[in-house]
């Protein structure tokens, strides 16, 4: 069985299945989201992540952690924010998306920006990163700092245990 560690590369083939992620998410409260909603969200992430070479299991684990399994105020309609994008703790400050598809692309593009520098991206990745960073710029010093899960601790989130928490959710999704 695959086990997600802090040294797991963010860019990797899927280490789990969309069906396992759907089962994991829907076995817990999901706020206003139905089984069908969850399936659409997860399957969209799987398609996008495979196209840009991010491991969708790790990305979905981040969504689950960031949104409290889709139950957070920021995850709810009409915001559909999958990963605390732009959320600072100041009431109302954060990004909102008209659809989960748009939220997924903003999330995955931003995560790619943490994993890769511009010079390391291919065409699809570069386009996704630039679209995401147009919505919320990323300081140059953070570009490429997280080729592995470990690099997200203290960068994506200030929590020094952040990468551990994402890995724990990912491993739970794997069963």
Model description:
The mean pLDDT is 96. The chain is mostly helical. 46% of the residues lie in helices and 0% in strands. The protein has helices at residues 18-26, 35-52, 56-67, 100-115, 123-135, 162-174. Helix 1 (18-26) packs antiparallel against helix 2, helix 2 (35-52) packs across helix 3 and helix 2 (35-52) runs parallel beside helix 4 (100-115). The chain has six helices and no strands. The relative contact order is 0.18. The protein has one domain (18-174): Orthogonal Bundle (Lysozyme).
Strand percent estimate:
under 5%
Query: Helix segment count?
Result: 6
Q: Overall pLDDT, averaged?
A: 96
* Secondary structure: number of strands: 0
What's the alpha carbon Rg, rounded to whole Å? 15 Å
In short:
By secondary structure, the chain is mainly alpha-helical. It is 46% helix and 0% strand.
Show the helix and strand layout.
Blueprint: H1 18-26, H2 35-52, H3 56-67, H4 100-115, H5 123-135, H6 162-174
What distinguishing features does this structure have?
6 helices; 0% strand
């Amino acid at each position: 069985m695959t086990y997600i560690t802090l040294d797991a590369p963010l860019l990797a083939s899927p280490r789990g299945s969309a069906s396992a992620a759907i089962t994991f998410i829907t076995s817990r409260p999901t706020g206003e989201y139905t089984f069908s909603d969850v399936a659409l969200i997860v399957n969209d992430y799987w398609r996008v992540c495979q196209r840009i070479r991010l491991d969708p299991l790790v990305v979905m684990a981040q969504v689950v952690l960031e949104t409290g399994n889709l139950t957070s105020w920021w995850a709810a309609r009409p915001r559909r924010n999958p990963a605390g994008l732009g959320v600072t703790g100041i009431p109302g400050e954060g990004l909102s998306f008209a659809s989960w598809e748009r939220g997924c692309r903003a999330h995955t593009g931003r995560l790619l920006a943490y994993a890769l520098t511009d010079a390391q991206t291919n065409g699809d990745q570069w386009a996704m990163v630039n679209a995401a960073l147009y919505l919320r710029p990323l300081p140059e010093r953070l570009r490429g700092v997280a080729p592995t899960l470990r690099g997200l601790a203290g960068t994506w989130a200030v929590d020094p245990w952040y990468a551990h928490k994402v890995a724990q959710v990912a491993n739970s999704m794997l069963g």
